[in-house]
Amino acid sequence: MIYLSLLWNFLKIGMFAFGGAYGAIPLIQEIILDNNWMDEAMFTNIVGISESTPGPIMVNVATYVGNSQGGILGAAIATIGVVLPSFVIILLITISLRSWIQNEKVQAMLKGIKPCLMGIILATGIFMGFNAIFGKPQSISFDLNALLILALLAILSNRYRYILKKELSPILLIIFSAFLGIIFYK
User: Fold this and answer.
1) Which pTM value belongs to this model?
2) 94: which DSSP letter?
């Protein structure tokens, strides 16, 4: 039964995850919490770990959740579930790409989806930042270390962009944040 649940739920995530993993984080979170596969704190940790490990976040989260709920077979089923819709969609798009992508209505639809995805990503970032600094909404507690790390990362990213005129690599940000975590949380 767990295998069917993993397959169905990760198929839903894969089908409705427009905009990549960041846009899908609220959907992934809702499904994982609704099924009681982990709590909010663990979910936040898994997103952080998935961001810092190679591969797409959705695939990493699916593999971890599948493994925690159904072992290696569960990991394989959840991973296939989250990847299968994209694979099928890309396959179909590739077959009809030339005529389909030039369609004015398709272009208008994609332009309409873009602001929505930006809003979802922004809301997810604010939600995760709020949870890191203030904890769960049910038991609010202020974490000065998380606020300081967030502020230092924002300053570093901004100064790097201003001085060197290019974006700071996400890999360097992850390494720096891990270093700050070791210093602040020992």
Assistant:
1) 0.59
2) H
